[in-house]
What does this fold into?
Amino acid sequence: MEKVVILRYAEIHLKGKNRGYFERVFSTNLERALKGLRHELRRTSGRYLVAAFDEEKSDEIMRRVSRVFGVHSYSAGLLVSNDIESIFEAAKLVAPESGSFKVQTHRGDKHYPLTSMEISAEIGGRLLGENPALRVDVHTPKHTVYIDIREGGKALVFGSFEDGLHGMPVSTAGKGLLLISGGIDSPVAGYMMAKRGLTVEALHFHSYPYTNEGAKEKVVSLAKILSEYTLVHRITAVSVTHIQEEIHKKCAAELNVTLLRRFMFRIAEKIAGREGAKCLVTGESLGQVASQTLEGLTSSNAVVSLPVLRPLIGFDKEDIIAVAKKIGTYEISVLPYEDCCTVFLPDFPAIRPSLSYIEEEEKKLDVDALVEEALSTREVIQL
Ligand code: ATP
Ligand code: MG
It folds into this structure.
């Protein structure tokens, strides 16, 4: 008898001809997620098994696989020989101490001498005989003992299905660059694109010394949580301090944020080019703030040729918060901090500035030189 974690995978099975590729990436991702923990990853038909791990690490294994995209469901279970004696020994360990229960059997191996019903009846009967505190209820049992007869003379016995994240394995959809701030939205945006298989690299802009080390640490903490899903364990940081000072000095105050965002996009596109990222990702949501009107989004799009993915564009703040809570970034996102956008925030930002007005104001700046200078401040932080 062996303790295992059983993984069933999700949308991958839809991918017809590419199935082999998707499965290879999926198992590589599982290995990456389990890095540093002793284990063995085994492939059986339609399932993966994590085995040979240290007993005290089983919760950690469950936690890590719960964050891998492509996992449909997972269970802590026991792998045994498929004879009734062995199945019964495992079922005793999985069964509750008291209360209502049923046994549910699935036969992956259709040559097994007993039918699913017969196996369930046999094991259920034996469990009852052994423990008078149990009661069978096939319709609304409090507990279920699941038996899965596998090929190769093996069976899996387990007590529950945990819902996985679903989605596509990361890195099956190419690479993108997430603009990550310390707020609630951008980590959620990164999570959502990773769920569609994107490799999500992250870029943060800071305004040190106007913003302090705490602001950076906050983003690093967020990026660390995000990395459990994206499996990308680094983040790039770039200073936009001088850009903000120049904008503040020379341009109309109501365009501060709009102009800064155009710089952010330009810099992001350059960094994306160096990292082989084929799109930008932001946490923008239509109408959320002055810079996220259609005019605002258009003015940022106008300076880049890469597509900009905005997975939250139609989300309400409450929807975004719900995801942030689920993935574990919310608590950090709401800690107080100074974002670079807030440092030179105008009293009245322009809500619908025309592109010609923006471009006119921008002519007062040496855009190329400022972008190059900002790129020279680039640092890569390993998480
Ligand atoms: P968030 O909650 O993610 O901070 P927000 O509601 O504060 O978003 P904005 O500040 O307008 O909205 O930012 C919109 C998007 O621009 C963010 O979701 C993020 O993708 C990007 N962004 C904003 N500030 C930064 C920053 N300092 N570094 C990198 N990207 C940023
Ligand atoms: Mg923000």
Q: What stands out?
A: The chain has a mean pLDDT of 94. The two ends are 38 Å apart (CA to CA). Residues 179-181, 183-186, 204-205, 282-284, 288-289, 291-292, 339-341 surround adenosine-5'-triphosphate (ligand 1) (CB under 6 Å). The longest strand covers residues 71-81.
